[in-house]
Amino acid sequence: MPKRVFVSFDYDHDVSLKELFVGQSRHPDTPFSIADWSVKEHIYGDWKAHARNKIRRVDVVAVICGAYTHMAEGVAAELLIAKQEYKPYFLLWGYSDRQCTKPSTASPNDRIYRWTWDNVKALIDGVR
After folding, report:
1. Which of 54, 33, 31 is nearest to 124 (CA)?
2. Are 68 and 10 in contact (CB under 8 A)?
3. Element housing 65 (H / E)
4. Is the predicted pLDDT of residue 38 greater than 60, yes or no?
5. Domain tally for the chain?
6. What would the pLDDT profile of 45-86 be if each residue is shown by its tens digit?
7. pTM for this one?
8. The domain spanning residue 11 has which CATH number?
């Protein structure tokens, strides 16, 4: 069974990156499925509880990093929830032509991986 992936990204600046990632996931040899539960609309009540429920149902969280990810409160919260739920996660460098930043809740030793199909497959395949 393919692993389920939650994609965290800065909705205000990097929605095109998420769309590219979802497009890549349609590749025939993809070892994962995207749980596209990005919180795009206003959610009444506690949106973090809503996000937590979604993250609990996946195998891994992919964080796509852009130029403003360090200021994206939603990405920071989603990564913190992933850590609290003991979900494996990885960070991807979203743009080849500009500086990308880690979420504010990333650990100092978290590496941002180059976004290549081989890297994505390896990172997801490595999840137990």
Report:
1. 31
2. yes
3. strand 60-65
4. no
5. 1
6. 688 898 999 999 999 999 999 999 999 999 999 999 999 999
7. 0.90
8. 3.40.50.450
